[in-house]
Write a structure and sequence with these properties.
Elements (H helix, E strand, L loop, with lengths): L4 E7 L16 E2 L2 E2 H11 L4 E6 L3 H5 L7 E4 L6 H6 L11 E6 L7 H13 L4 E7 L7 E5 L5 E5 L6 H4 L3 E10 H8 L15 H8 L4 E5 L12 H21 L3 E2 L5 E3 L4 E2 L4 E2 L3 E3 L4 E2 L4 E2 L3 E3 L4 E2 L4 E9 L2 E2 L4 E9 L1 E3 L4 E2 L4 E3 L9 E3 L4 E2 L4 E3 L2 E3 L4 E2 L4 E2 L4 E2 L4 E3 L4 E4 L3
Parallel strand pairs: 1-4, 1-6, 4-5, 7-11, 12-15, 13-16, 14-17, 15-18, 16-19, 17-20, 18-21, 19-21, 20-22, 21-23, 22-24, 23-25, 24-27, 25-28, 26-29, 27-30, 28-31, 29-32, 30-33, 31-34
Antiparallel strand pairs: 2-3, 6-10, 7-10, 8-9, 8-10, 34-35
């Protein structure tokens, strides 16, 4: 992008409609705080100068911002115009295009914002807003136009009259401004509305009144402009983002048998020719190799790593575990905090009992071991290469089953010990 672009990201609001103790912008969407998606967008646009405006519980929000992010705290939450005005000091020497984004609008695509910026710069405009047409525009600010169809202002729904509420063209909130014209207009914004706040949208009518050049770019996919204000909005955003994530994997060679019943968190890595069966949940920080088979009804939690050609079958949970190439864990198992080698067969009903009431403990199972059905491994334990556990065995804490040995029983005792 043009180097003469800066960005302000608004993330200060209380988000009372979420009815949550968490700041709205750190609520997760597909396993990632929504503010993270906006941070990614800025990076994709290659905007080097960006400022996050924080307010409500700013200490919590700050933990989810990129390293080195420029942050300003809005001490009094009195509106979006005041929030943008807080960036004045950090933008004192900047005189280009200022892009305004919202941390609670995580679905925007790079291509859409690029189009907005290009149109703004190419036409030397004072303000360019991203708009959309909705048959049911309830909840959004309406775009006002004069008799020549020029944009003359934006009216928030709470302040709109019955006629204005019939307008189908809505404001998404995303906008580009001539920085100098914007900050001059900010001094004229008044809290003349029901909420008694300083609205950034009032800038449009001020610029229009003063003869400024104001125009719009219409968004083609209204889902991109979804702002998260309620739990219903959050659920909708999760669904849309999940569709994007699943589609991205399928385009890269992963088979997802039923994308509508597979839930994959942001940042997961999956190799080509892997198949994900229905009702599978894959959480954050999971890596899956090539030609694996996962599910149905599998739950892969954080820190799980699968090498190539692993089979994880029905009703299985794995967490913080590494599973080696061509290992099978086909039925009804819990694999936690485990290091499993290659070509291991884990029988149905196997449980790694990793928690002793105080801490998590490690289970090690080496290459080509055979774990009999309903084995319970009370970690920490080690199962050697080509070792065997009998069906229903309980391997007690601290046991070291040597290479090639066999153990059976409750508690397990050596049936054959490889000396």
């Amino acid at each position: 992008m043009n180097k003469n672009i800066a960005c302000v990201i608004l993330a200060a609001g209380k988000s009372t409609r979420m009815k949550s103790g968490l700041p709205k912008v750190i609520h997760p969407i597909c396993g990632r705080p929504m503010v993270g998606y906006v941070s990614d967008l800025i990076n994709e646009l290659k905007i080097n100068r960006s400022i996050f405006i924080l307010g409500h519980k700013h200490q919590e929000v700050s933990r989810f911002l990129p390293d080195g992010a420029k942050v300003i705290i809005q001490q009094r939450l009195i509106g979006t115009a005041d929030a943008v005005k807080q960036s004045a000091k950090l933008l004192r020497d900047f005189q280009g295009t200022l892009l305004v984004l919202y941390a609670d609008t995580p679905l925007l695509k790079k291509e859409t914002v690029k189009k907005l910026i290009r149109y703004h710069i190419d036409n030397n405009l004072d303000a360019t807003i991203l708009t959309a047409r909705l048959e049911n525009p309830a909840g959004y600010g309406r775009v006002l136009r004069d008799k020549y169809s020029s944009i003359s202002g934006i009216i928030e729904e709470k302040d709109a009259d019955a006629f204005q509420k019939e307008i189908k063209e809505i404001n998404t909130g995303i906008a580009c401004f001539n920085k100098r014209k914007l900050f001059a207009a900010l001094d004229h914004v008044k809290p003349d509305n029901r909420k008694k706040e300083y609205y950034l949208t009032d800038i449009i009518s001020i610029l229009y009144r003063d003869g400024g050049l104001v125009d719009s770019v219409k968004i083609t996919d209204i889902d991109e402009a979804l702002g998260i204000n309620t739990r219903l909005d959050l659920a909708k955003a999760n669904r849309i983002m999940q569709e994007r994530i699943n589609a991205g994997f399928m385009q890269k060679g992963v088979s997802i048998v039923d994308p509508g019943s597979v839930f994959i968190s942001f940042g997961t890595k999956i190799g080509k020719d892997t198949t994900i069966y229905p009702f599978t949940v894959i959480e954050r920080d999971v890596r899956i190799g090539k030609r694996c088979l996962i599910g149905p009804f599998a739950h892969l939690r954080e820190g799980t790593v699968l090498e190539d050609e692993v089979l994880l079958g029905n009703f299985l949970e794995a967490v913080r575990s590494k599973i080696g190439r061509k290992t099978w864990v086909k039925h009804f198992s819990y694999i936690g905090d485990s290091r499993i080698g290659r070509q291991v067969n884990i029988g149905a009903g196997t449980v790694t009992a990793n928690f002793d009431g105080r801490q998590k403990n490690i289970t090690v199972i080496k290459d080509k071991a055979f774990i009999g059905s309903d084995t319970v491994l009370v970690a920490p334990v080690k199962i050697g290469r080509r070792a065997i556990t009998g069906a229903g065995s309980v391997i007690v804490k601290g046991t070291n089953v040597g290479d090639g040995s066999t153990v059976i029983g409750v508690p397990a005792r050596f049936y054959r010990k490889n000396k």
